[in-house]
């Protein structure tokens, strides 16, 4: 396994070139091929769950030493009401939600090669340090192939 602390992290300004954004989105699509959950997404889900992160600079994209994608994570700063609605499954995140409040919500973390814990530790250390002590939430999904459904699990962790 690659030591994530030694690899480059792309935390670009919001003014990505079209080519850079396309390359990273392509990398996210490659990562999704290795995730049973993300393979099920339709284009509209990707549009609402990752594109705003690129536009608002609320993402980290990880590559190995050969430039191959190994992980992606994004976050939104949502209001308490929106956070509660997202966690309950009442609705999905929309573009206007991404900077609607002070609560950190993780729409996507794709780390199909076993780097999830390292990504979280890196985010704590390099991205979310100003929010140290705050709770962060996400909804993880696990595919239940036998019943053709996704099982939602709310996860909280501290910065």
From TrEMBL:
Q: Which Pfam families match?
A: HlyC
Question: Per the similarity annotation, which family is this?
Answer: Belongs to the RTX toxin acyltransferase family.
Compartments, as annotated in UniProt: Cytoplasm
Domain of life the protein comes from: Bacteria
Q: What does this protein do?
A: Involved in fatty acylation of protoxin at internal lysine residues, thereby converting it to the active toxin.
Supply the EC number(s). 2.3.1.-
What are its GO cellular component terms? cytoplasm
Q: What is this protein called?
A: RTX toxin-activating lysine-acyltransferase
Q: Which UniProt keywords apply?
A: Acyltransferase, Cytolysis, Cytoplasm, Transferase
Q: Which GO terms describe its biological process?
A: killing of cells of another organism; toxin metabolic process
Q: What is the lineage of its organism?
A: Bacteria, Pseudomonadati, Pseudomonadota, Gammaproteobacteria, Vibrionales
One MF term from GO for this chain? Answer: acyltransferase activity
Record bears the keyword Manganese: no
InterPro entries hit by this protein: RTX_toxin-activating_protC_bac (IPR003996)
